[in-house]
Amino acid sequence: MRILHIISQAPDFTGSGKYIQQVLVQSAKTGHDNFLVAGVQGNFILPAGLIEDNHCIFIRFDGKDLDFPIPGMSDVMPYESRVFSHMGSRDLAAYHQVFETKIRQALERFRPDIIHTHHLWIVSAIIRRLAPRIPMVTSCHGTCLRQHVLCPEISKRVTADLKQIDHVIALSQTQKQEIIKTIGTDPTRTHVVSGGYNDACFFHTPKTFDGVVELVYAGKLSAAKGVPWLLSSLAKIRHLPFRLHLAGNSSDREKARCLESAGALKEKVVYHGPLSHDDLGKLLRTAHVFVLPSFYEGLPLVLMEALACGCRLVATALPGVKELLEHDDNPMIRLLDLPPLETIDTPYKSDMPQLANRLASVLAQTIQDVQAHPDPDWDYACTKIFPYTWEKIFSKIDRVYQQAANRTGYIRPDGDDVSG
């Protein structure tokens, strides 16, 4: 099949960009013909070997196609970005017009059998209006649902079109219910398909231990991801033999705040900046513990990546995380329950001292586990990650493509009616 992939923002192929990168790779391996439309930064360079240059159309921000930074699906992104809730009518109109123009070009050049978009937000609504007769699948990554809360006026304008999407892919059962509630999608056409991990980059090698327990956090350096909370918790147990590796980036203000807190731990923190998939895999293979203290996530693929590298996990018991890991009684994993939050990704300030003490206690226990047994139960990790290789995950996505393509009343781009 000819599949047109559309993502509104993928400037560095992290987060949802990492997801679509693997979808493109696996789709090509399966034999599909792929075309990509993506919003990118002005200086973006296509990763080598991902897709042919003549099968791409980019919407470039930062003074190229649009004269403002790329809007992020989260309000804090690991690069310079705009916030949808702060965009005026002029910029929103320009955003809409440029994406519509580029998508029309892609439809005319490629004539797809299937359209696969990412995020239940503005660009997916645009494509549904432009191509109502072409079967359409949209993957929700969670952050778009947060924008419906933060931008209610935009939400009102796009929801009717989003409801007409043929099939929606959710990352978890909890997210599926949130999509149905927010958008009003048909439950029978809203499918739960997890994300996956790249087993060529993330794999196990035996752990060594020289007396220092290596901890890793990888992701945005932001308060919503819990990084300041993690650092304040580690300050309470600084007497223990650990070293924290921070991998990632953020907006200047959030990054500065996190690195300032890290400075109090001095040589116990190493900042790596953003890492490629290969380099993150190398770091995780040398690490003993991966920590994800986030207050909001869809389904964090980095947990699967860390587990594939043989790391113990310490994470907050968010819905997507709990679906993957909650029912396991294994010392490799410790989940920390959160109290009610003040906003979708912000705890009450009054709860922070207690939270810091609880996280410090869990981290101390985990550090002691590593000291006693540096290399944990790899057989357990193998069993857990086996269903989440990208090859297996994409086979589920491909089945959704087949359901969409078999839609009654579908008219191929060449004009032939193939309805049953």
UniProtKB/TrEMBL annotation:
Q: Does the keyword Ligase apply?
A: no
InterPro entries in alphabetical order: Glyco_trans_4-like_N
Q: Which Gene3D superfamilies match?
A: Glycogen Phosphorylase B (3.40.50.2000)
What is the protein's name according to its record?
Answer: Glycosyl transferase group 1
One Pfam family recorded for the sequence:
Glyco_trans_1_4
The Swiss-Prot or TrEMBL record annotates one GO molecular function as: glycosyltransferase activity
Q: Residue ranges of the Glycosyltransferase subfamily 4-like N-terminal domain?
A: 98-198
Q: Lineage from the top down?
A: Bacteria, Pseudomonadati, Thermodesulfobacteriota, Desulfobacteria, Desulfobacterales
Q: Does the keyword Transferase apply?
A: yes
Q: Which UniProt keywords apply?
A: Transferase
Q: Which domain of life is it from?
A: Bacteria
Q: Identify the species of origin.
A: Desulfotignum phosphitoxidans DSM 13687
